[in-house]
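new request in #modeling-help
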Amino acid sequence: MEKIIVFGHKNPDTDSICSSIVMADLQTKVRGQEVIACRLGEINEETQYALNYFKAETPKLIEKVEEGQIVIMVDHNEFSQTVDGIENAKIDTVIDHHRINNFKTAEPLFYYAQPVGCTATLLYELYKLNNVKIEPKIAGLMLSAIISDTLLLKSPTTTEKDKKALAELEKLANVNKETYGLEMLKAGTNLDKYTEKELINLDAKMMESQGAKYMVAQVNTVSIPDVLKRKAQIEEEIKNTINEKELSLFVFAITDIVNSNSEAIVLGDRTDLISKTYEINDNIAVMPGVVSRKKQILPLIEKNM
Amino acid sequence: MEKIIVFGHKNPDTDSICSSIVMADLQTKVRGQEVIACRLGEINEETQYALNYFKAETPKLIEKVEEGQIVIMVDHNEFSQTVDGIENAKIDTVIDHHRINNFKTAEPLFYYAQPVGCTATLLYELYKLNNVKIEPKIAGLMLSAIISDTLLLKSPTTTEKDKKALAELEKLANVNKETYGLEMLKAGTNLDKYTEKELINLDAKMMESQGAKYMVAQVNTVSIPDVLKRKAQIEEEIKNTINEKELSLFVFAITDIVNSNSEAIVLGDRTDLISKTYEINDNIAVMPGVVSRKKQILPLIEKNM
């Protein structure tokens, strides 16, 4: 019997990586059998900072799953964002905080989702529900995930539950959330080392709606103009991706984590899905106050569909 | 602002009706605003017995929902089984114990599902989680739902959680689960009053998979031969339904609740989905030990697809 594995989405962010490690810890303790944390892509610099700080092991990289493999999905549910072979796996559990789309199972499962800012907030609840003690390392990883997903509680996705969980995890992890959090977020804004191709794939999500495939990528920065210096090359790579994956739309959101604004490079046949709401000039849409892909950009696209 | 409404699936069974009333009670108390229990079809005799016994009001019959209506779904998730207009409603919460299929939302939601025998078992957990007192009437409705869905804990869908919930609800509702349960189940086996058309729609679920639409209906009885006396007329109605709804398959399962066996009338172009596993003679498949549509019949069809 293959061991149960747990993983977050492709192009993993800090929540996907940390929640996989945390969920593997929780499930190993609850089930009394080893559950393995996995990942579907490279670790970004922000996440690496968190793993180093809390001395956590990097989850195992996997590309596909075998038929019948028992899997736990965290931080996602859409098949377009998950591991290859999912159609023939047995999905045992999903813990998520996104809409449900492009998802189905042959059998009943454990599915727990809430419209909160971060998957780790729900995992924190599950530790309490199951009366499992949270070790400092595990607390640190949950705290890192919440800080990352809510941009230190500034994103409109933030809920009271995220705030409460973060406050309690701060004590358990024995760090100052502001100091640690800003350092961690800044570690993720070092974008110079990435090629343009890497940049648009760092945190990119593929969606499908009404037959249209589109991608929304997001990077965090402390200086949007700094990123836009590479606009021409980034556009080149986006166009390649659109052709390769037959996309109707690609949105590359550059988010200023200090001032909580975004500017997005918008390309494809369906730029109208953005331009119905934000004017696009020279392929750039300026989006004041926008920091959340899930709560702000994706609903906008769906509404304009 | 429209009030929030809660409803179970079309062709409602005891779990769908009772869980709607129970969830409306819980949500009204938790949210501090009235949540309305609704239903998508006629009350069957088994359910009526439970409602009478515990002096519960019949939920309001609705056929469709308006755009933007906030809804809570219990005991189902598939759009093919739910209210008309769901695509433009706002799905706030789902509490369910079925596989996820044919379901999507534009935004994150509260989704709580577990592979347990009955939705009411999960609602029982939610009362405890939210520290809400369970009144005897509410306990009686949850108990009725669990007895109905698990056939008094005999169905293979039954889990430890259902057993535990039922044992505790028995005390709160102040009834004997065996005596009350058998009376309630028997009330649902009085099939003589139904026309054949009503019979095949009493507890029928429409499914879609790989482009094939199919229906699986189920009735409980204390005598399978008694029901099969009307085989010719039942087949006639099934054929009409197949034509009308363009179905690939219709399975009408007749379940002996005393001996825990079923025989099914199987018609349509895709009878192979059943006959790969059970021999079909004169349109009848004998299924020893089969009592659960969800756990036994539906997975079989999906596997043979």
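bot summary: Chain B touches chain A at residues 97-115, 129, 294, 299, 302-303 (CB under 8 Å).
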